[in-house]
Design a protein that fits this description.
Layout: E1 4-9, H1 30-43, E2 47-52, E3 94-96, H2 118-124, E4 129-135, H3 137-150, E5 154-163, H4 171-181, E6 185-187, H5 189-195
Parallel strand pairs: 1-2, 1-4, 2-3, 4-5, 5-6
Helix pairs in contact: 1-5, 3-4
Bound molecules: zinc ion.
């Protein structure tokens, strides 16, 4: 297995325009994500879609004292991957925020179906470089990127494949700066495809 993995963060129905917690312009991440998925399949890079997979009652949700509308509840349409995302077979799905008290911002809090933590899995299969795109820049992408760096992984943010919530104007831009300062490489899917073909 190659040393690179593709991490796709929260490309789930509830974060798109018809969902319960839409990220502005979220649909725009689908074409670049599909492009980089094609590359990952050509290169046999593990494709790791990371999903919010919340219980119906979660301290993450407003009715239970949390910050957010109810979203991505386990086994509902909102928690499914966007239908236009061409993930292909044999992906390694990581689920996060799966218990009442878990916020699940970072993919590194999540586990594969057999319970292996994402960071442990990446180490097991010899991954040293991760490409990260998805939703949202200022929350789960940022948290996942910062944790990837803590795991000493070369971390590339696919900037055209991310969109921000921007609860406060400029949050997305500040998140990009923070990721950069922490050591992340900011790139585009086009650049990555060019460099690897
Ligand atoms: Zn969530």
């Amino acid at each position: 297995m190659s040393n690179t993995a593709l991490l796709i963060v929260d490309a789930l129905n509830d974060f798109f325009s018809k969902g319960s917690l839409p990220v502005p312009r979220a649909e725009e991440v689908i074409p670049p994500l599909n492009d980089v998925i094609v590359l990952a399949r050509q290169k046999s890079w593990p494709r790791i879609p990371i999903r919010d997979w919340h219980p119906r009652t979660s301290s993450h949700f407003k009715p239970f004292g949390g910050e957010w509308n109810i979203h991505c509840v386990q086994n509902t349409h909102g928690a499914e991957f966007h239908p236009n995302l061409n993930l292909g077979p044999d992906c390694f799905i990581v689920s996060k925020g799966t218990r009442f008290g878990e916020q699940g911002y970072s993919g590194f809090e999540g586990t594969l179906s057999d319970g292996t933590l994402l960071g442990v899995f990446l180490k097991q299969v010899g991954i040293t470089r991760v490409l990260i795109g998805g939703l949202a820049t200022d929350y789960c992408v940022k948290a996942t990127v910062l944790d990837a760096l803590k795991h000493k992984l070369e971390t590339i943010v696919l900037i055209d494949a991310c969109r921000a919530v921007d609860v406060n104007p400029g949050d997305g831009d500040r998140a990009i700066l923070e990721m950069k300062k922490a050591g992340a490489i900011i790139s585009t899917t086009g650049e990555i495809i060019k460099l690897n073909s």
